[in-house]
Write a structure and sequence with these properties.
This protein is α/β, with parallel strands linked by helices and 446 residues long. It is built from 14 helices and 14 strands. Helices cover 37% and strands 14% of the residues.
């Protein structure tokens, strides 16, 4: 019988997942289309590799095992799987069509709604993915300022201008790499050191897990403005989640441009670029940014329904409430068990991260052990709590009960020094994404 969201006696059987994986390996390189969803992010031999369906805050894998999901499709599912209002909007639009030969009225409806809720949305562009709009923002910033260089902090997608600063930068010309640099979050001096007369824009995630300190975002805006550099917020994670209007509403700091995806269409592929009309007006005749599927109507319908639901139900407050209960509960358990120095949960309440101290052992092995034991208890866990409107108090209570058992096991393993021996399979792999220690300066030409 497949495992449930329960304290199961055994680890889940994943035979069908493994069969699919072997089929994929023969023709796909790599097998995953999204790095964070791939098998390298889950302990091999215990975690499922393929999911089949979802409802609310739960998913079922291809073997029929049921899990409480805190990954939520790596962020887009702000309301939950199969959310009725959104699915009904998609179904209604499907009857009329998906993609058309001319513009669709929902483009205007969505733009008007976004204009109303996002502070900087004087003008709006619609596309499909986060990387689309971050790259469009950089391009139009370069055109508007007549400058070339980009400073970034966080993760901004797969395009050349950003990936050149990561360890996965093969295939990027050196000339392109030299135009991008990184800075440390909450370190205004690292920005000032890197800014020069050829810096077109500064792009950053308004926060990842660390909160801004010493009015960092407002100070950053002033420094950029003084230098004639545009400020871009990458709000893939913060937008519509920390507040309906995103981090710019939450912190009261309005960037020149802002980029959104994930949360505002509850799983449908769509993204937004918002910002100053004088900047975005360059897309009219001078800067090219168009895509065949930018006006795809199912995603537009989903976005309108999702945003309306977020406004009417005050979804950000709900996410914060449930997320805080989970974060505080985790840290209380760690303290009670005497392992607060081994693991902790941090971040803004709507999205938190569990981390492990390297002094206690290999962090990837510690994470893998916790993941292994959470999966046994019916929780699909990747180290994050991406909260959705479908997560209930009962879900949080069950998760904390599971954490109590699992953290007791972790303490015993750390005390015995045999975490690796307790793993049932290959541990999770590291990814190139950084959340701190950015300090790559621009290349200085002689």
């Amino acid at each position: 019988m497949p495992n449930k969201v329960a304290f199961n006696e055994e680890y889940p059987l994943i035979a069908e997942s493994d069969k699919l994986y072997e089929r994929a390996r023969s023709i796909m390189t790599p097998v995953t289309q999204t790095l964070a969803k791939g098998p390298g992010q889950y302990i091999n031999g215990v975690a499922p590799k393929y999911l089949k369906r979802g409802k609310g805050a739960r998913v079922w894998d291809v073997d029929g095992n049921e899990y409480l999901d805190y990954n939520m499709a790596i962020g887009p599912l702000s309301l939950g799987y199969g959310y009725p209002r959104v699915d009904e909007a998609i179904s209604a639009q499907l009857k009329d069509g998906i993609t058309f030969s001319m513009m669709h009225e929902l483009e205007v409806v969505l733009a008007e709604l976004v204009h109303r809720v996002i502070p900087n949305a004087e003008s709006i562009r619609i596309s499909k993915t986060g990387a689309d709009v971050t790259s469009a923002a950089v391009r139009v910033a370069r055109a508007f300022t007549g400058r070339n260089k980009v400073l970034c902090c966080g993760y901004h997608g797969w395009h050349d201008w950003y990936i050149g600063v990561t360890s996965r930068n093969a295939g990027i010309p050196e000339a392109v790499k030299e135009l991008s640099a990184t800075f440390d979050y909450n370190d205004l001096d690292s920005v000032k050191d890197a800014l020069d007369e050829d810096t077109a824009c500064v792009i950053l995630e308004p926060f990842v897990f660390e909160a801004p300190k010493n009015d960092f975002l407002r100070e950053l805006k002033e420094v950029c403005a003084a230098n004639g550099t545009l400020l871009i917020f990458d709000e893939m994670w913060t937008g519509f989640r920390v507040a309906v209007g995103g981090a710019q509403e939450y912190f009261g700091v309005t960037p020149d441009l802002a980029c959104y995806s994930k949360a505002f269409a509850n799983g449908m592929p769509i993204s937004l670029l918002t910002g100053r009309r004088d900047v975005l007006s360059l897309f009219q005749d001078e800067v090219f940014f168009f895509t065949t599927f930018g006006g795809e109507a199912l995603s537009l319908a989903a976005a309108v329904a999702t945003i309306q639901e977020m406004i009417e139900k005050n979804v950000p407050a709900y996410l914060a409430e449930k997320g805080k209960k989970l974060k505080d509960g985790y840290n209380t358990l760690a303290a009670e068990l005497g392992i607060a120095g081994v693991t902790r949960c941090t971040g803004f309440d709507c999205r938190t991260m569990v981390s492990f101290d390297a002094a206690a052992g290999n962090p990837l092995e510690l994470k893998s052990y916790v993941q292994q034991e959470m999966i046994k208890r019916g929780i699909l866990w990747g180290g994050f709590h991406n909260m959705s409107f479908s997560h209930t108090d009962e879900d949080v209570d069950y998760t904390l009960a599971a954490y109590r058992e699992v953290l007791e096991l972790l303490k015993a393993a750390v005390d015995a020094g045999d975490v690796a021996d307790r793993l049932k399979g290959k541990p999770v792999e590291a990814v190139f994404r950084k959340v701190s220690n950015f300090n790559m300066k621009p290349v200085i030409k002689a």
